[in-house]
Amino acid sequence: MTAPIIEMRNIEKHFGPVIALGGVSFDVRPGECHCLLGDNGAGKSTFIKTMSGVHKPSRGTMVVEGQEVVFDSPRDAMAAGIATVYQDLAMIPLMSVTRNFWMGREPEKGFGPFKTIDFAKANEVTMREMARMGINLREPEQAVGTLSGGERQTVAIARAVYFGAKVLILDEPTSALGVRQTANVLATIDQVRKAGIGIVFITHNVRHAMAVGDRFTVLNRGKTLGTAVRGEITAEALQDLMAGGQELAVLESSLGGTV
Amino acid sequence: MTDERLMPVSSLRRAMIRPELGAICGVILVFAFFLMVAGDSGMFAPAGFQNWLVVSAQFAIIAVGACLLMIAGEFDLSVGSMIGFAGVIAAILTVQWGWPAWLAILVTFAVCIGLGAINGLLVIRTGLPSFIVTLAFLYILRGLTIWLSILTTRQTIIGGVREAAEGDWLAALFGGVIFKGFFQWLGDVGLIDTFTRGARAGQPVVEGVPMLIVWAIGLIIFGHWLLAKTRFGNWIFASGGDAQAARYVGVPVNRVKVLMFMFTAFCATVFAMCQVMEFGSAAADRGLLKEFEAIICVVIGGALLTGGYGSVIGAALGALIFGVVQQGLFFAGAESSLFRVFLGTILILAVIMNTYIRRLITGER
Question: Which domains does chain B show, CATH number per domain?
Answer without folding.
Answer: 19-33+41-356 (1.10.3470)
